Amino acid sequence: MKVSIFDVAKKSGLSVVTVSRVLNGAESVRENNRQKVLEAIKELDYRPNAAARSLASGKTGIIGIIVTTLQDSFFDAVVKELNEVLAMHGYFLAISISAGIESDDSHYLIQEDRVDGLFLLSPMEEDNYIVELKRRGIPYVLIDNQKPENDTYSITIDNFKGGYMATSYLLALGHTSIAHLCGQEMFRSTRERRAGFLHALEEKGLTPFEIVHGDFEIGMGYETCKRWLNEGQLPTAVFAGDDNIALGVINALMEAGIRVPEQVAVIGYDDHYIASQLHPYLTTIRQPSDKIGLAAAEMLLKRISGKMKRGAGVKIDPELIVRESTSN
């Protein structure tokens, strides 16, 4: 049987009027009452009637997200968080996996009246998207965008702090010969994580064992480490720009009989699901997808409702997760 707004009112112990105000984002509702309604919506899995809401408010009840891939556990986690938060506010999340603004899926989502707002997750053509979204008057929020000048409506991770944190941890363990394997230069995260890495070394008067650029893939870490082994030179620690690279390094070391972390310590970035599933469990820098998704959803909902008059980006701190690959 379909859950109605009356069921939500009964469950929360509040009036239908109060529930309606919460669904429509009214500021007049007391915070404790708002939480009661949101909890009831979640428990009952209530979905407001999109057609009725659209007629009443002139809104579609749909928010779009454009992402280049979902074959990434970080992206996947952010999308899941967004979906849950938006559902609690009565919105449906429409996902487009697209390489650029000219693709059919992207073009469909950003047409007038298709969506009430749009997320761009790690966009590669953000300037083109922003121009078009502004032209059409569609509220948007960037997540993990590439250009600092577009941070006005964005949620980003402090990747400089993440790189600095990872390297400082290795230094504190006594390592002085540290390599950094990073992604392509086009990515802001690559540049910022590397900058944090270098700053931590410079504070100690040290230079890197080596900095290697490549793709965020297992093969990149594996081939780089194989080269070191063939050359007969290994760092005592590796800071990998993501968990895939780190796992590739560990694979090559274990094949060669090099013990991790006793002979070479390895730290990754992202805290992908697999990081806590394979031995040695991977020490890594976590990007908190729950905080990112919640902050992005709140920002876009404020933009849609007109409550956010002035843009201000949000920067979220990463977290160091210590596991077996750096210490016993």
TrEMBL record:
Pfam families: LacI, Peripla_BP_3. InterPro entries: HTH_LacI (IPR000843), LacI/GalR-like_sensor (IPR046335), Lambda_DNA-bd_dom_sf (IPR010982), Peripla_BP_I (IPR028082). It comes from the Bacteria. Residues 3-57 form the HTH lacI-type domain. Keywords: DNA-binding, Transcription, Transcription regulation. PANTHER family: HTH-TYPE TRANSCRIPTIONAL REGULATOR GALS, LACI-RELATED TRANSCRIPTIONAL REPRESSOR. This is HTH-type transcriptional repressor PurR. It comes from Paenibacillus pseudetheri. The lineage of its organism: Bacteria, Bacillati, Bacillota, Bacilli, Bacillales. The gene is purR_4.
